[in-house]
Protein 1
Amino acid sequence: MAALFMSVISFSVNAQVKKTATPKTAVPASKKKATAPAKTIAPKPVAETMDITTAATTRVKITTDSGIIIVKLYDSTPLHRDNFIKLVNQGFYDSLLFHRVIQGFMIQGGDPLSKNAEPGVMLGNGGGDMERIPAEFRTTLFHKKGVLAAARDNNPEKASSACQFYIAQGKKYTDEDLNMMEAQMGRKLSLQQRKAYKTVGGIPFLDMNYTVFGEVESGMEVIDKIASVPTAPGDRPIGDVRMKMEVVK
């Protein structure tokens, strides 16, 4: 099969939210030699009594061409937290690009093929041979602006890419917008979600579809700056936006 484009959902932003986004999680970027399906890491049991919060003991410093971002990694999503820490400590992300940027939606990076990519090359296929991370959905962790979440292909388990991630930018919504979205999604948003989506904004239609495993503590303006850069068809920035990461306490 063609290599899979590790992507979050394609979308249409409009004030009335008349249509929800449709999945675009398995878009063939190019015809390549067939490869074996990616494996999924076996999930570890999580105690039922675990307090699902945004508590965090680990932070990561992301240095970009546009400034510095500090993210905290949630302890309530240990598989994603530990995998991200491992890759950061290995220097995996150093010199990789934010290869997919959509203003009013998100900025995405972590494709290992982006390190030495020529200008104009479509990216998003890298990391498909790495073991997927099982989904760690938590109803209290949702796509408000600034959250760190895992990209994925269209596997039925909604398991995450082992390396590709995105940081949500999104937009602010009105109560009317959110009411329409609830009707389209067939589920209710919590009071906490509604407050966040009205005040700071975010991407409600991605909730419980992509694992949220951290959030920005400082550098939110850097997210907005990166999201606003000019892009080519395929949403790759015309000028490369590189990253370097380190674990900080």
Note: The helical segments are 78-89, 175-185, 191-199, 220-227.
Protein 2
Amino acid sequence: MIWKYYLPAPLPGPHERTALEDIFLVPEDGSSGRESYWFTLEALQSFTGGTREEKLVRLGDDDYVISDHMDMLIRREDFDRAELLEWTKTFLRIRFGDANPILAEASGDEVARCAPTTSEVDIKHRSPRKVKLVFVHHKTGPPSFLPEEVLADDPRADVRTLWLGDDPAQNPPATLFDWADLVIVMDKRMRQITQKRLKVLGVKKRIICLHLPEHHDAHDPQYLHLFRERIGVYLEKLGWVTP
């Protein structure tokens, strides 16, 4: 069967390697309804899910294990894009009984069906009110600034901040995520940590990565200008205007 797939943050090059990645899958036969299947591939060097030794204990004598949350831990240090897709086929054979899965990357309107987010059309229908933003920061180290303070004068946004650590067992309550329209992180590492928390909580939200340093000089005017500018670009793109 053909499966459409979508990578929310694809690896920048075919030989780039990572140890944790999400992929969203939709079967061509429509059996998933309007939802996509959220699959996470994790290797031994990933920074979530415990230490390397704890991962090896979970694996036992196996090359991989699949959890109830549709996470797949593999006995590899890391993987590239091609390996990610091959492991995805293995996951589909084991979890869904598809003996010959064929992967085709989603494009155009197909992405909206695969992506675990509110569609942009729905977002635009809500544009007259303030957008509810939750910024997720890592607990380690002092914060460079509080988004609530930086965006205090922006009439488009209602802002909250959440602090997360690496331990997946210490999940925050889903209430704040349920409240949010958009979840925003500063870098890819926090995007991956946040996605794993959302998956365990059973919450599907659009996550926006600003690709800015998590900890930076709060008095650097260029950094704060870039932060405000990137937030503004996303809000404009998604249809939020001044109420």
Note: The radius of gyration is 19 Å.
Protein 3
Amino acid sequence: MRAALAGIGSTPQRYPVSKTAHRGGPGPRTEGFAPGQAGGVYDRIGWLQDTQLVFEAPALARLTADGRLSEAHYPVEIGCGTGRFARDLLTKVCGPQCRYVGLDVSPRMCRIATARLSRWSARARVMQVDGTLPLPLPAAGADRVAAAFVVDLLPTEYARQLLADTQRVLAPGGLLCLASLVQGSTRASRAFSSAWSILAERAPALLGGCRPVVLPVLGGRTHMLGRPASPGHG
């Protein structure tokens, strides 16, 4: 299932890294982190990202099942972080035919992921990117593109352009699989989502830049998995 998204041209688009972002600070923000800012924040987070597993695991398990990642031969992960999800794909989900590529804007995350996946270096590659679009990937070269808790930390327009470019990367019949924080559907979860959104505006680095988003607006007809914001997740 492939999303039909409009609004992206062929000219590479850059989102510059500010000096503040290089120091790891988020800088001024109205909606989401630019890629360079996200890289600075996640350089600071590093291995601590793995502490979020207890909150992310149910969504990742469903993403793996619904996205039929066990059938994937050429998966690409946007925002590979520490490589934890990639390791699980290589050891528990995908067969020996799998050739994995992970992308991240954080130099520290790329180093951590590369070290974690070194055992599978013959079929797993981690690439540091700077947020420039189109992505440095060949057309129609992937049968899965996964992004777990990535679009909820990016500016909406950049996220739309990023997801549009994944359609170039996907082979015919490939799947774009997303997991993200979304607005709650119950009274309690809506109240928590609202509080989370307010805090995300005022102190985004405390939450790793994540805030609840509306996935259908970002992803068109893409297969998507939303997860209401809950305590402890960022």
Note: The beta strands are 75-78, 100-104, 124-128, 142-148, 170-182, 223-228.
